[in-house]
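Sanity check record (used in CI):
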Amino acid sequence: MCANFGLYCALIRLGLYSFGRRVCCTCRTPPEKPVFQVLCLGLTGSGKSAIIYALSKDSIDKLEPTVGFLIKPLEFTDCIFEMKELGGADNVRIYWDRYLSGVDALIYVVNSADTADNLQLASQELTRILQNKQLNNVPLLLMANHHDMEDARSMDQLKQIFDWPIISTNRQCIIHPSSIKNTDTIEQGFKKLCGKLQINASSPGK
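Expected output for ADP-ribosylation factor-like protein 15:
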């Protein structure tokens, strides 16, 4: 009961934050760098929060699974990501579809050393969320986290598990290996996504 109440409160706060951001952005001085709204999803234990905290130079020693959401800006050389991470537990994933509006990119984090069942579930959840019309043509970065572990799948194996030829049809997709022990591997993936978003933003019709 308490856990569900905490989740509901977190989701309400996220809704209020999203509304407030839309109102404030209308009168805010535009930043020097392009700002992109990036949604981060993945199952519990995939390492979503750890990746975000690692890039923000915050300690990850006492991280716990996200209940509800996490919001944190990440600044890179050429752009800023307004990161919005939603928890990956069963009782949170059912709300993912409610927070897709205005998303410029999706980062989906998977534990590449996870069990076969969990990887299959992660694939099913990604396929489901990509079917939402609000994510049409939204670029995808699949972060193959924990790739330093002995049981980690190769990129080719993950592409097969996640039906890469299908999900990458009519969508810009990147798959990138990462490790919490090596922040550079994480930053490289995020910078690849930043580059694609910058090209898209500067292309005709944007």
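The CA atoms of residues 50 and 60 lie 6 Å apart. If this sentence no longer matches the regenerated tokens, the check is flagged for review.
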